[in-house]
Write a structure and sequence with these properties.
alpha/beta, Rossmann fold, nine-stranded mixed sheet, 11 strands, about 20% strand
């Protein structure tokens, strides 16, 4: 287990006045949409569109995919963009490989983000077993930051160990009361749901799935869950996740 350290060190190592239920429900929906505050733009037009402008402030947002490479690209991208905004903690759960500091630096260059800013605001840590994960998430809760990113949180949780999964989910949800938490997760094999069990699915505020389509670098992004937006989907190019420019495929609703 590694405690959180600067990336440079890592490189070295409802209102009551309405009279009807329908009117009240409409007011709540309107309030949810208009009162949302965006903490972070992904700078990918179609993805931000699906999210209603970007990742919400003080929310628990999860991206999950059967393709670990897509998740890793998005994680490195959002780590750089989060660090541009403010203090960011990145917890990477891994067995081998994992966080690539050189990709972080390349991503910063591609996104025109000052590497000095990333270097000063981004602190990273790695966990190699379940106990390390719990300890580091718990320490992250106590540490001052604006963003907390966790990659592959359930890697060391047994498939049917719901008690451990629920314990970890509860711990990761805690910091979302005063900061923005972003998870990068895997789906359950042969099922559409992400790892973590039912308790986990209910705890996440916003859920987005990424799936590779065909063999030409196309990615389908699906908004699976959102408190104030309907499920929808769009297509992007893997190049966009890499920080390379591409216009993307517009949603049909954008042309209407």
């Amino acid at each position: 287990m590694e405690n959180f350290s600067l990336i440079s060190l890592y490189l070295q190592k409802v209102p009551q006045s309405f009279s009807t239920v329908i009117a009240s429900a409409l007011w709540v929906m309107l309030a949810q949409v208009t009162c949302r505050r965006i903490a972070l733009s992904t700078r990918i037009g179609a993805l931000d569109y699906l999210l209603g402008g970007g990742i919400e402030e003080n929310s628990l947002t999860e991206f999950y995919s059967p393709d670990n490479g897509l998740l890793s690209l998005l994680c490195h991208r959002l780590a750089v963009l989060s660090a541009e905004k403010g203090k960011t903690l990145l917890l990477y759960i891994q067995e081998f490989g994992g966080l690539d500091p050189y990709l972080l630096k390349t991503m910063a260059e591609r996104l025109s983000v000052s590497w000095n800013l990333v270097d000063s605001n981004l602190k990273v840590a790695r966990a190699f077993k379940f106990e390390d994960t719990l300890e580091l998430v718990n320490s992250a809760v106590k540490e001052d930051s604006e963003f907390l990113l966790v990659f592959d949180p359930y890697l060391h949780v047994e498939f049917r160990d719901l008690q451990s999964a629920s314990r970890l989910t509860w711990l990761m949800k805690l910091p979302s009361s005063d900061r923005t938490v972003i998870l990068f997760n895997k789906p359950i094999e042969d099922r559409f749901s992400p790892l973590g069990g039912n308790y986990h699915a209910h705890s996440v505020h916003i859920l987005v799935r990424l799936d590779p389509v065909g063999g030409r670098g196309t990615v389908k992004i699906r908004l699976v869950k959102h408190p104030s937006l309907p499920p929808t989907s769009a297509l992007i190019k893997k190049r966009e996740l890499e920080g390379l420019e591409w216009e993307g495929q517009h949603l049909l609703s954008e042309w209407l």
